[in-house]
Amino acid sequence: MRPIALITVMLALAAGDAARGQAPGSPRQAVEAAAEALGGRSRIQSLRTLTIVGYGQIGQQNGGGNIDPHPYAPQKWTNVGGSTRTIDLQNGRMRLVQTATQDFVFAYERNMRGIRSDVRLDGDIAWNIGANGAPQRVGDAASRARRLDMLNNPIALVRAALDPAATLSNLRTDRASGAQAIDVTTAKGDQLTIGFDTRTRLPAWVSWVQPDTNLGEVTLRTYYTAYQAENGVQVPFGYTSVIDWRNTVTWRFYVDRVLVDAPTDDLTAPAAVRVPAPPPAAPTIQVENVAKGIWYLRGQGNSTAFEFSDHIVLYEVYASEANARAIIEKARTLVPGKPVTRAIVSHHHFDHSGGLRAAVAEGLEIITHRGNVEIFREMAGRPAKTFPDALGRSPRPIRLLPVDETLVLKDAVMEVQIYRTLNNSHMANAVIAYAPGAKTVSQGDLVDENWDLVYWGNSYPETVNFWKLDVERDLAVHGRINTYRDAIGHLRRQAANAKAFCEKAAAANFSVPGCPVTNADF
Ligand SMILES: [Zn+2]
User: Fold this and answer.
1) How many whole angstroms from 110 Cα to the centroid of ligand 1?
2) Separation between Cα atoms, residue 257 and residue 248, nearest integer Å
């Protein structure tokens, strides 16, 4: 510890502040003490760049992508390797280059091998470098997220708090962590809370609120651990981010090396990305009439609409509020006067339940497997006050109709039979919708013709055979309408690809999740 930091701590002890768990004086003094502990205010403020190299894991879908929604279902992780984060502290610029590799089986060889990304920020301009090397501007939501991600580092954070244009307030003890917490509104207007370690005075964590499609909004908190000295400043060698939903760990990062003021590339936004990204276009929904009273609605993920005597039932409200609302609005136009009253949700995964909150806000009753009831209640019950979505603006309770093994929806004009899927290693609590009149199955994640690998191809034919269904056509959430025969053909091809991928990995003496494939014969 630097002498001046030690003196600060000793003074605090002498005053009895530490004993009472109070930071000395004011929020400003807590920040000043942190700057001293990090290496001294002038040293911190004269730094030009930080380069943080390491590896880590990202929690797939914030914990919403596991085999089932049980809080102790094993978390699926995406590994990030070769991660290099460069922060230009003087100019408010950042670049993060890393390779993301799934540590669980999913459907594309490229995801299993690893996808390199290069994301950048210069002030308010966020852009990506594509695989072709071309810069591409991204929207304001990404800009805010990256700005906060740039502050997700103790030195960048304390510098932002030292900015005279920042507002500091509400010094208090955070009971859960024992840290001294303050609220900060940065010069850019971002609101953060910082926790300081009462012994070392170093930043112990930072937190902020962010919008979330599935969870309304979440408070994310990153803990800094394993501080060590590098070039005269204290830097953490461990980062863990947790959200306030089931304490899900969303990011773990293991630092290999921190370079202080090392030369970096120029991270100035190029002219090509200085034009603002156009606002995202409203989703367009294409309608295909499949049979009498059955429509396939093609959006960002496809839904099926079933017409009953006096109402319409949807299968799937995928991806997002925008997509789900577009699907619901389109379904309302199919038969004038017939309201859309229910949505069947195939399974809980956060892409497939991305429209859940929107559907609840629209007053739809949700039909799903009983195993998803609890998580759907949690999702629909969360507030969204800082970043209100449709449900945040007009909260209403979720109405649920659970399915155990089967549920039949039937009236004079339509019959839809809902069945639980079998023996599926991707999702345990999934349901399909079978229309016996048209011999169609609507399904999510049993097959997608665009996958190149499948590890659960057995599940679709086993489900159809077990329930003795006579299927002619497959109405996929992902892909398009296929004959059932073609759908099974896609699964056989993808399962063979998975087997071949595993054989390549084995020949290279390389361990890959899901290998060897044991269910390719169906
Ligand atoms: Zn899924």
Assistant:
1) 18
2) 26
How many whole angstroms from 349 Cα to the centroid of ligand 1? 5
Asked if residue 276 belongs to a domain, the reply is no
* Tokens representing residue 338 in the block: 């017939």
From 265, 300, 335, the end of a domain falls on 265
The enclosing domain of 359 has a CATH number of 3.60.15.10
CATH number reported for the structural domain that contains residue 179 in this entry: 2.50.20.10
Domain boundary among 213, 236, 265: 265
The alpha carbon dihedral of 357, 360, 365, 370 has a sign of positive
Q: Which residue intervals of 356-404 are DSSP H helices?
A: 356-361, 373-381, 390-393
Bridge partners of 249, per DSSP, are 242
Amino acid (one-letter) located at 295: W
User: Rounded to an integer, what distance in angstroms lies between the CA atom of residue 410 and that of residue 414?
Assistant: 6
CA of 167 relative to ligand 1 center, distance in Å: 43
Residue 351 Cα to ligand 1 midpoint, Å, equals 7
Whether residue 360 contacts residue 380, with contact meaning beta carbons closer than 8 Å, is answered with yes
Position 245 in a domain: yes
| Greatest alpha-carbon span in the chain | 84
- Is the CB of residue 356 less than 8 Å from the CB of residue 346? no
User: Do 80 and 126 reside in the same domain of the chain?
Assistant: yes
Do 261 and 290 lie in one domain? The reply is: no
Residue 6, both tokens: 């030690």
Q: How far apart are CA 490 and CA 442, in angstroms?
A: 16
455 Cα: distance to centroid of ligand 1 (angstroms) = 13
| Together in a domain, 34 and 163 | yes
- Number of folded domains in the chain? 2
pLDDT along the chain (522 residues), means of 10: 46 44 77 98 97 98 98 98 98 98 96 96 97 94 96 98 98 95 97 98 98 98 98 98 98 98 96 91 95 97 98 98 98 96 98 98 98 98 97 97 98 98 98 98 98 97 98 98 98 98 96 93 91
